[in-house]
Amino acid sequence: MSKPQVVFVLGGPGAGKGTQCSNIVSKFGFVHLSAGDLLRAERSKPDSMFGELIDSHIKNGTIVPVEITCKLIQNAMEASAASRFLIDGFPRNKDNMIGWDTTIGDQVDLLFVLFLECSENVCIERCMKRGAAGSGRADDNLESLKKRIVTFVNDSMPIIEYFKEKNLVKRVEAEKNAEDVWSDIIELFKNI
Ligand SMILES: Nc1ncnc2c1ncn2[C@@H]1O[C@H](COP(=O)(O)OP(=O)(O)O)[C@@H](O)[C@H]1O
Ligand SMILES: Nc1ccn([C@@H]2O[C@H](COP(=O)(O)OP(=O)(O)O)[C@@H](O)[C@H]2O)c(=O)n1
Questions:
Q1: According to the model, what pLDDT value does residue 192 have?
Q2: Is 96 in the pocket of ligand 2 (CB under 6 A)?
Q3: In the chain, which ranges are continuous DSSP H helix?
């Protein structure tokens, strides 16, 4: 049997990863796994051993240890019969990358990395708006956002650079309106 296919979806906080992943799911039949959503769901379980740890990382905009995140992704992949996955918000730092490579990496076929490029200011503005509209997220506030941006620049951008060197990055200009970003993404997915 062939390996499941994976596209990693990366970009700063509020770059539009979730928005565009749901478009890709509708049109191209991928299953969307958001590392952030999986962590938030784990944090909310009353019997989770990791609830407090996850909560503190999310509020501080820092990255949860990969053993936790990778296991959640792996469980979600196993629970799904799908053959194509969008993995959103992962890998986000070197620890995520190493954890993935040494566990599931060999068992999947990484197609490419979709990078939604968006300036800091626009990222902050979108997340603040999302918070004001009632996202209920503990990290859609200015204090957490500043930390999330620092983590993105210092820890996540080097991962995107690493994938660029391997010619695996497909970049999209994510500051345009959501419909125009989506048109660009269709071009990247239509022939795979
Ligand atoms: N291209 C866009 N232009 C303006 N707002 C957008 C765009 N894409 C997404 N948004 C809005 O910005 C916020 C963050 O988008 P989201 O998809 O949740 O980003 P991420 O998953 O990268 O954090 C949401 O409120 C969403 O509706
Ligand atoms: N691979 C990941 C993804 C998210 N996270 C945590 O979850 C938070 C929210 O991530 P997210 O992908 O849902 O949201 P955005 O910051 O992209 O809007 C991050 O700031 C991290 O604290 C993590 O620790 N490891």
A1: 87
A2: yes
A3: 17-28, 35-44, 51-60, 66-79, 94-101, 120-132, 142-151, 157-165, 178-189
